[in-house]
Amino acid sequence: MRRPIVAGNWKANLTAGEAAALVRQLKASCETAAAEVVVCPPFTALAAVAPLLKGSRIALGAQDVFWEPAGAFTGEVTPPMLRDAGCQYVIVGHSERRTHFGETDQIVRRKLQAALAHGLTPIVCIGETLAQREAGQTFDILTRQLDGALGDCPPETCRRLILAYEPVWAIGTGKNATPEQAQEAHQAIRRWVADRCGSSAGGGIRIQYGGSVTPANAASLLQQPDVDGALVGGASLKADAFSAIVKAAKTGAAAPHE
After folding, report:
1. For 50-101, what is each residue's pLDDT tens digit?
2. Which of 36, 103, 166, 186 is catalytic?
3. From its phi and psi, is residue 212 left (phi > 0), alpha (psi between -120 and 50) or beta?
4. 251: pLDDT confidence band, cut at 50, 70 and 90?
5. Which of 94, 96, 128, 186 is catalytic?
6. Residue 123, in any domain of the structure
7. How many domains does the structure of the chain reveal?
8. Whole-angstrom Cα distance, residue 110 to residue 73?
9. Is residue 253 part of a domain?
């Protein structure tokens, strides 16, 4: 059985002090969570948050990573830096990175490979725009993004990462895919993984849904058979809202993080 995983992407929000205060609230409310829980603060808050999460059921993730381990790359944060900061997860290929900063499928591939090489679990984001959905191109876009990022990955690699289906038209817009739309997309993604990496990898890989996930819609989304959790944006900045989403993912059992 796939354990659901709920991750909070805090984006460019919260100072170190604000992030620490939010984590203190979340530790209490997520202590008995059945789902695996991850928070992804901005880089500047990682050091403040990491010691607070030790021994808790909440893991630390980052919002992005560079593909080289070190070097003359001003402004970049490398995989060893993230590991040193206490990160276990990292978001790769978020639509805001693709849209605002020109990240291609090839860049996403380099980042996820670098993350895996340094012991980080990448949360690889894929999803279509509204124009692409209305043109009936959703599954073509998902296939292209999967081919570009994972096309040559061996089966064992597929078992070490998480996919996040985030329809671009639902991110930060207040709109979200219906449970049926989410299930249809997740099923197609799982089928792609099974075809490329084998039925075991296809059945075992966890696929999150992201895009205006709220306490009001979380349960209906998370009860879909191929939806294995959520990648939460705005609602993850409020302890009560994020905790309610975590509680909506009821299957599985989490263990404390060291």
Report:
1. 999 999 999 999 999 999 999 999 999 999 999 999 999 999 999 999 999 9
2. 166
3. left
4. low
5. 94
6. yes
7. 1
8. 15
9. no
Cα–Cα distance, 178 to 243 (Å, whole number): 21
CB 34 within 8 A of CB 4: yes
Question: What distance in Å separates the CA atoms of residue 170 and residue 243, rounded to the nearest whole number?
Answer: 21
Q: Which domain holds residue 124?
A: 5-248
- Whether 257 is catalytic is no
Claim: this prediction has a pTM higher than 0.85: yes
29-43 residue pLDDT tens = 988 888 999 999 999
Residues near 68 by Cβ (< 8 Å), separated by ≥ 6?
Answer: 76, 78, 114
Mean local confidence (pLDDT), 181-209: 94
Q: Which residues of 202-241 are buried (b: 16+ CB within 10 A; e: fewer)?
A: bebbbbbbbbbbbbebbeebbebebbbbbbbbbbbbebeb
Q: Would you call 18 a catalytic residue per the annotation? A: no
In this structure, what is the dihedral angle of CA atoms 181, 171, 78, 256, given to the nearest 10 degrees? -70
Give which of 122, 149, 129 is closest to 208, Cα–Cα: 122
On whether the CB atoms of residues 92 and 208 are closer than 8 A, the answer is no
Query: Is the residue at 119 inside a domain?
Result: yes
Flag whether 256 is in a domain: no
CATH number reported for the structural domain that contains residue 236 in this entry? 3.20.20.70
Report the Cα 149 to chain-centroid distance in Å: 15
- CB 42 within 8 Å of CB 17: no
